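Anyone up for a design puzzle?
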């Protein structure tokens, strides 16, 4: 090969390398190329999966991230949103999202909190590093394993759905906490959502505590105020509320489902629902409901 030809090829290779470097720098520095809603220079990976647009950090420390991680979480969350609309959409006025649902995942709590504060997002009471904006249908959280992140996003999406469904509703505390906790334990199934097998663990914990009278009795759970879900009993109360909601949706061969959805519709109306609304709508005293609920937990824990 002639010297002139070699020099030309070398120049072309150097030019290509320089162009690649410039494009990489622009990707990190120009505002127009920053991930949606993120600041310029934020080195995030952005993936679109169905209706979900998710941005995850390129470097997750001990937790490996990348486009595969983002695509997995985005696809699972998109499937959950479709299933959530199928499960309770008619009752809550919830349709599958048509516009992009933005999910922002950060490597550090401080980053997520600053992002959420700037956008006036609401924090999940049980997860101070997780945030949601009902009107914008957007979410932010710190990085965690894919399965845990998907479950957390399901929880946040349920909170957002309740806020969007009843702007003037005063949701009963057990329901406001229980429905998000319930749906965080689910996976999409034909026609809606179903409990994952790891819900057995939660059922076994509640049954073990109930055997020692160390659980939150159902009457206390249903009629307890917000303080029950903010104090030392909050983790247990939230777990029980989630399992009780699961019982009403899928227990007793589904016999409780329609009355529970009617109750959910009543809760959605402006102002607080009267204390006896649940029992009246289900047509069953709480004491009897508790017995049936424990039977459901026994079957679930097997």
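Challenge accepted. My sequence:
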């Amino acid at each position: 090969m002639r010297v002139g030809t070699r020099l030309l090829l070398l120049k072309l290779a150097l030019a290509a390398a320089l162009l690649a470097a410039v494009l990489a720098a622009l990707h990190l520095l120009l505002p127009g190329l920053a991930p949606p809603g993120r600041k310029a220079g934020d080195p995030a990976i952005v993936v679109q999966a169905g209706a979900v647009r998710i941005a995850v950090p390129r470097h997750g420390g001990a937790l490996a991230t990348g486009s595969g991680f983002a695509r997995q979480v985005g696809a699972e969350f998109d499937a959950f949103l479709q299933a959530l609309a199928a499960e309770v959409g008619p009752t809550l006025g919830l349709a599958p999202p048509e516009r992009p649902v933005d999910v922002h995942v950060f490597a550090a709590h401080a980053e997520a909190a600053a992002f959420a504060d700037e956008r006036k997002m609401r924090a999940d009471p049980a997860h101070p590093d997780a945030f949601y904006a009902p009107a914008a249908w957007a979410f932010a959280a710190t990085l965690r394993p894919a399965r845990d992140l998907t479950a957390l996003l399901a929880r946040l999406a349920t909170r957002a759905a309740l806020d969007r469904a009843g702007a003037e509703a005063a949701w009963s505390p057990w329901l406001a906490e229980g429905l998000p906790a319930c749906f965080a334990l689910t996976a999409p199934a034909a026609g809606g959502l179903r409990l994952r097998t790891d819900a057995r663990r939660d059922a076994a914990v509640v049954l073990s505590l109930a055997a020692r009278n160390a659980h939150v009795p159902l009457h206390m759970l249903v009629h307890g105020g917000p303080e029950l879900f903010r104090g030392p009993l909050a983790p247990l109360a939230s777990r029980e509320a989630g399992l009780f909601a699961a019982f009403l949706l899928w227990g007793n061969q589904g016999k409780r489902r329609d009355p529970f959805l009617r109750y959910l519709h009543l809760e959605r109306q402006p102002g607080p629902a009267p204390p006896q609304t649940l029992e009246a709508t289900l047509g069953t005293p709480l004491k009897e409901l508790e017995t049936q609920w424990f039977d459901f937990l026994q079957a679930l824990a097997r």
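A detail worth pointing out: Residues 44-165 form one domain.
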